[in-house]
Amino acid sequence: MSLIDIPHFLSTTRENQLTAEEILARCRALAPRLRERAEDIEEQRQLPPDIVELLRGTGVFRMAVPKAWGGPELDAVQQTEVIEALATGDASTAWCAMIGMDTPVYAGFLREDVARRLLADPDTVTAGAIMPMGRAERTPGGYRVTGQWHFGSGITHSTWVVGGVLVTRDGEPEPGPPGTPGNWRVIVAPVEDFRVQDTWYTTGLAGTGSRDYRAENLYVPEEYTFSFAAPRVTGAAATPDAVLRNMPGVPLGVARAAIDHIRLMATLRVDRASQSPWAEDYRVQTVIARSEMRLSAARYAVYGSLREQWEILEAGDTPTADEQVATVLARVNAFRTARSVVTELFDLAATSAVYRPSVLDRWLRDLTTMCQHVMAQDQVVQSAGARLLGGTPQNPYSVGIVP
């Protein structure tokens, strides 16, 4: 599909039943447009309104809506492919798509009438952080919530916002299950209920608009809160880590774009000192081959483990520790491998890579920032090892454990 076809397919009515293949095709066609706008997206430090509308038109925000509710209900493999396609165009856009499409996942942990309100517009966007950075005091019918949360990716174009809280009663923390810091719940509220703070000045992923947001004594009805330990639905979407599965699509897509960029450069560039074509240079050939080797191994680990885990969960079975950990380690490895691959390609390009708006410069900064995410840290690797050995994970949620 060519760029000239984009306005046509993006203008089709959203009420039409989209398939996974159609959403993926639209996102692949949109990627070159995103590449053209990447510098503008970075400078604005949030997604421009027209880019948000282009994303809505692809169907990416509705891709987890259940088929029973008129949605396409993409599985984890299909979702990750879509995010990967967008990331070949712009990492910030792909990151916002990955976060913003979580509304149907959260809806699966909420009462059905509330879930339907959230999904009245299937293309609605939800932002926010689920880790318990706020406090929720029990009050008749709900909670009074106060807190400040970081990393509200996509909050500048969201409708709903989530925030993790620890529940208190009469000012005292409610006890949680043994070994937990307390009673962890997640609140859902309209974006207008929060004060968004312009804090997002970063090395990379600047276009995600991942700003801080806060609430003071905000009343949230009980039915607009949930625990990841108590899903309403069944199947693969009912697990605590459902919102994590498509994350690797972002680093995988960025690394793919970087390799393709260097491969194209190699067909055109001539070494200044030797006057020999890059395509015939031993070092260039080796770096490109090594990059392909490492990325393909990381990519197959992601997709293979996701496919295996999804099939197990959809069959109503429980993954073994090894099967659960496989997706966790593949996710962390995707982030780290992508950063390592792009670092080597950046070094190969030498001084030409350092001038802004060099795409290699932006890709390296984007990957450096995304690798700081909590789900790409050593505590996740430790948690995976602890799960395998029967020990205590530092981050149990990262390995799908919510007591």
UniProtKB/TrEMBL annotation:
GO molecular function ontology, one term from the record: acyl-CoA dehydrogenase activity
Species assigned in the record: Streptomyces tagetis
Domain of life: Bacteria
Domain (Acyl-CoA dehydrogenase C-terminal): residue spans on this chain: 251-377
Protein name: Acyl-CoA dehydrogenase family protein
Pfam families named among the record's database cross-references: Acyl-CoA_dh_2 (PF08028), Acyl-CoA_dh_N (PF02771)
Any single GO BP term: fatty acid beta-oxidation using acyl-CoA dehydrogenase
InterPro entries the UniProt entry points to: Acyl-CoA_dehydrogenase, Acyl-CoA_DH_C, Acyl-CoA_Oxase/DH_mid-dom_sf, AcylCo_DH-like_C, AcylCoA_DH/ox_N, AcylCoA_DH/ox_N_sf, AcylCoA_DH/oxidase_NM_dom_sf
Positions of the Acyl-CoA dehydrogenase/oxidase N-terminal domain: 27-100
GO CC field: cytoplasm
Gene3D superfamilies cross-referenced by the UniProt entry: Acyl-CoA dehydrogenase/oxidase, N-terminal domain, Butyryl-CoA Dehydrogenase, subunit A, domain 2, Butyryl-CoA Dehydrogenase, subunit A, domain 3
Family recorded in the similarity comment: Belongs to the HpaH/HsaA monooxygenase family.
Keywords: Oxidoreductase
